Amino acid sequence: MPLYFYAECLDCGFKTPYDPKKPGCPKCGSLWREAHYNYAVLAQTFLKQIANRPFNLWRYRELLPIQKIIPDLTLGEGGTPLIHAKNLGLMLGLPNLYIKDERQGPTNSFKDRQAAITIAVLKEAGITEMVCASTGNVAISYSAYASRAGIKLWAFLTSLVPAVKMREVALYGTQVVKITGSYDLTKQLAEEFSRQRNMFLDLGARSIPCVESMKTIAFEIAEQISNLVHNHELKDIEPPKTPWMAPDWYIQSVSGGMGPLGADKGFRELKLMGLIEKQPKLGLIQTEGCAPMVHAWRQNKDEVIPVLSPRTRIETLATGNPGRTYTLLRKAIQKGSGGEIESVSDEEAFRAMHLLAKMEGLSVEPAAAVAFAGVVKLFRAGTIKPNEVVVINCTGHTVPVERSMLGEGWEHNIDATAKAVQENEEGLLAALSSVTIDKFPKIAIIDDEPDVRKLVRRILQSQGNYVLVEASNGKDAVEIIRKERPNLILLDLMMPDMDGFSVMDTLQSQPETREIPIIVVTAKELTAFEKGRLKGHIQSLMQKGNFMSDDLLDEVNSLLK
Ligand SMILES: *Cc1c(COP(=O)(O)O)cnc(C)c1O
Ligand SMILES: [Zn+2]
Q1: Using CA atoms, how far apart are residues 460 and 556, in angstroms rounded to an integer?
Q2: What CATH number does domain 436-560 carry, 3.40.50.2020, 3.30.70.890, 3.40.50.2300, 3.60.20.10?
Q3: Which of 104, 108, 110 is the best mutation target for the ligand 1 pocket, counting ligand atoms within 8 Å of the beta carbon and taking the most?
Q4: Which of 64, 82, 382, 483 is the most buried (most CB within 10 A)?
Q5: Which of 296, 302, 305, 290 is nearest to 328 (CA)?
Q6: 367 lines ligand 1 (CB under 6 A)
Q7: 219-252 pLDDT, tens per residue?
């Protein structure tokens, strides 16, 4: 038992020891209660207690509602890596952009934190059967842990949950109850079922173990960010006076809002104990088709008006009625943490999903991509500033990629069984020539910064078929362009010795290179004189750190036509 741990009612303030079998306040019956610990004592002891423990979520056990760890239950939950999103950061002009990769949990979503701790608490309390309602990931994660704990699980799922996810739930031996109807209705039916059968019901944001479990992501992020800052890996950020440091932003895609509620509480506790100077702002991102929090936030309302029929293909985020969780999050943002609640369209999320896979090597589910699309939007609106440290909770795993998410032209087909191909070797080579590169347009990338060349190369190679040549200075550029005769040149202006202007002048003084179109890609703020020098000589001007891959690709493709 952690030191002086108790539950305090949010409605009447009554304090009691916590008993998972009695979820309501004994005085007023409210289900909304919050866990409290003795922060004054922990401020003195916590760092010493955790010092030699492995990096997983049990490391923070003094701040969790468990008596003791049950080793047989663990599947390696928590302790996920914090990954630098270097390419995305370069593209946006946001150098300190980090991804908390929750796909790396045991069932590939951040719900593993919730399941690991809740199931441990229930096991401790001797509960053997339970009910949960889910948009997919909660049921998968609870199923895995329930299986280890010997708890029978009834999972109520909306019929919108993809069939593969539903079958994964069943694979663990969970009883799947599929409801044709909204998620909110599914939750009501699960509640009714648990009442009829007198079974334990998972209460989500009203459950102390659930909310407490989400604190662990905050603790991990604060430790990881402080390691980075002390190793001078954050650009232009000085180490704080406190032992740990929080980022400026915690960004998450939001459905019911339990994740940010718990994470915010975690950061608040770290501040109470003097481990961090300030809490991160909360960036809560919903899908446009189901954005009750965004509507209420914009209208400055304290309560949501439920969205009765969500219109989104991202079923994981289809909580139409987040209820009091919104009210609590709004209070957290307004009274302390700061932040913003915003929405993005399904299409923006799908685009972000592509971007993340192509630029950072992370294949995520659409619900997770919503948070990334949200960062782009908040950054462009000036809400997120270029010098801020931003952590995105990459909430969940890949689902099998459906055709509609890929678009056209992603495969090359060769029928090696066709007669013409089989008859002789030339047939096979002819068939392969459809995939060879000599037909593809050639583009020269001229930039002295290796990171920028790498980024531009990645944008082009992952999203189109081009032959790419590179040069890192003006002299080599002129030489390579004369030799290779590219169809297009991407030219940096600021390079030592021979700068971009001189490269342009040299190329355009020669008949054989005069006609090659040029896109200037520069980080330079151009003077009127410099703009005048470029006018009539280049086809397009793009500002580094401010273009997304789509913009660059659009320019490239329109000039190659
Ligand atoms: C549950 C879930 C969310 C939403 O989390 P809440 O904190 O409950 O709003 C987002 N993305 C994924 C992948 C999820 O599984
Ligand atoms: Zn009460």
Answers
A1: 9
A2: 3.40.50.2300
A3: 110
A4: 64
A5: 302
A6: yes
A7: 999 999 999 999 999 999 999 999 999 999 999 9
